[in-house]
């Protein structure tokens, strides 16, 4: 029921007091600057928008969503592309989609590529009032969907063996 939903929302906000401060910051920034700017300098201008709950809801989502894609490009895709060329690895970035990179490589290169991305993507970002880092997860597989999920990067031997086993399994 609507009443029950309101209670759940209030309970969540009580348990996460930083959210109310974040919401207030977004509203104040939109009203004062008529735009939001993420830490990479991307601007979302709203000077011609109607101010109200819908705009504020979009603003609450804009900062984390815009920074997620920019983080992947600036700290993942671009440095990884250069690194793969420099290291002369037989690997290719096939697809970049909002929060993921799909990379084809030989099993013996999979760990080094994953470790490079982990180091770059998990580097803390300074938001002025705090530094935050987003944990990176990995998948191995013969298709985009992936066959094996890793919430954290395992030791090299385990990751490489998993990559080799997928290659062996698919060829039999």
Helix content: 55-70%
Give the helix/strand class: alpha+beta
The tally of beta strands, per DSSP, is: 8
Mean pLDDT: 91
Radius of gyration over C-alpha positions, nearest whole angstrom: 21 Å
Q: Count up the helices.
A: 5
Strand order of the largest sheet: 1-2
Distance between the termini: 54 Å
Quickly describe the structure:
The chain is of the alpha+beta class and 172 residues long.
List key phrases describing it.
single chain; 172 residues; alpha+beta; two-stranded antiparallel sheet; elongated
Structure explained in plain terms:
The protein is an alpha+beta fold and 172 residues long. The strands form 4 sheets. Strands 1-2 form a two-stranded antiparallel ribbon. It has a two-stranded antiparallel sheet with strand order 3-4. The termini are far apart.
Topology:
Elements: H1 2-15, H2 17-33, E1 35-37, E2 43-45, H3 53-87, E3 91-97, E4 100-105, H4 107-121, E5 125-126, E6 131-132, E7 138-140, E8 148-150, H5 156-171
Antiparallel strand pairs: 1-2, 3-4, 5-6, 7-8
Helix pairs in contact: 3-4, 4-5
């Amino acid at each position: 029921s609507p009443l029950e939903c309101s209670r759940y929302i209030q309970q969540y906000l009580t348990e996460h007091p930083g959210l109310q401060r974040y919401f207030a910051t977004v509203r104040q920034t939109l009203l004062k600057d008529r735009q939001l700017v993420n830490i990479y300098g991307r601007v979302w201008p709203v000077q011609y928008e109607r101010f109200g709950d819908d705009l504020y809801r979009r603003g609450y989502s804009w900062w984390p969503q815009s920074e997620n894609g920019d983080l992947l490009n600036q700290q993942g895709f671009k440095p990884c592309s250069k690194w793969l060329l420099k290291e002369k690895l037989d690997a290719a970035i096939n697809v970049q989609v909002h929060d993921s990179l799909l990379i084809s490589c030989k099993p013996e290169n999979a760990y080094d590529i994953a470790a490079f991305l982990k180091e770059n993507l998990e580097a803390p970002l300074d938001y002025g009032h705090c530094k935050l880092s987003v944990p990176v997860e990995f998948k191995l597989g013969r298709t985009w969907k992936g066959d094996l999920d890793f919430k954290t990067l395992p030791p090299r031997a385990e990751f490489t063996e998993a990559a080799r086993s997928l290659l062996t399994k698919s060829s039999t």
